[in-house]
Design goal:
seven-stranded antiparallel β-sheet; Phosphatase 2c, domain 1; 25% helix
Length: 257
């Protein structure tokens, strides 16, 4: 059995699944956003082992949710992980290429006024392979707790969905029992600006230390409670922390925050 919870605290939406996943969405404040709407969204599909973040523009804050809903519709129709647990590594990689084509078909149809960033991860547990799907300035980090390493896998760019006809970056990733993934919109840098302290590597080191002592489901709330202290400069934030090798995880529920 797994324990999952979705709740709102001080206008911040949280989702927690014990030892497997923690997510949060928080509306920006002050001179960055007017606080009336949030352009950032998080989508989690447990059945298809899929997580994503998206960041729409202030003039159209619903663009991110609209795009993620279209991805959800695609997943519901084609079921990218139907019987994938029985596939060989070569067949998994072939299915990943098909998924890339399906998502690029959606990207081509998005109009300029609906532009959004998009960073997503499919993961296949029996072969410990993950597929990054990315365009824009949202981000994916891969942390290895035992190895003490942190890698920013995504390539930051301004090729937003709505301005391009295909994803900017796709990448196959090997992951391990000590792997943890962070997906976030660019509001994450507002959140941890003090943690970074303008020195390269500070943020990664502190996050690695936190990951050794804090379950991924509790980490988003802990980060926000600890570092979200400058409301005069807070962009919208979408954040997911993931342990893809967790033995106990849900299989069919999905969430759109």
């Amino acid at each position: 059995m797994y324990s999952g919870m979705e709740k709102k605290i001080n206008n911040i939406s949280y989702l927690t699944v014990n030892d497997f996943l923690g997510a949060a969405v928080r509306t920006g404040r002050g001179n960055v956003r007017n606080g009336n709407s949030c352009g950032d969204s998080v989508f989690i599909d447990f059945q298809n082992n899929f997580v994503a973040v998206a960041d729409g523009p202030e003039r159209n804050p619903y663009a991110s949710q609209s795009f993620l809903k279209r991805i959800h519709g695609m997943l519901g129709c084609v079921g990218p992980h139907a019987d994938i647990g029985n596939l060989s590594i070569n067949d998994v990689e072939k299915r990943f290429n098909e998924i890339i084509g399906e998502i690029n078909s959606i990207v081509k149809t998005v109009c300029y006024t609906d532009n959004t960033t998009f960073t997503a991860l499919f993961f296949v547990r029996h072969v410990r392979k993950a597929l990054l799907l990315h365009t824009g300035d949202s981000m994916l980090y891969h942390f290895r707790i035992d190895e003490g390493t942190a890698e920013k896998v995504s390539q930051t760019n301004h090729c937003f969905v709505g301005r391009i006809d295909r994803l900017y970056q796709t990448k196959l990733i090997n992951y391990y029992s000590d792997s943890r993934f962070l997906l976030a919109t660019d509001g994450f840098y507002d959140l941890v600006r003090d943690m970074r302290n303008f020195t390269s590597g500070n943020m990664e080191k502190e996050l690695l230390a936190l990951l050794k002592t804090t379950s991924v489901d509790q980490l988003p709330r802990k980060l926000i409670r600890t570092y979200d202290v400058k409301p005069e400069m807070s962009d919208d934030l979408g954040l997911v922390m993931l342990n893809p090798d967790c033995d106990d995880m849900p299989t069919k529920t999905y969430y759109l925050l």
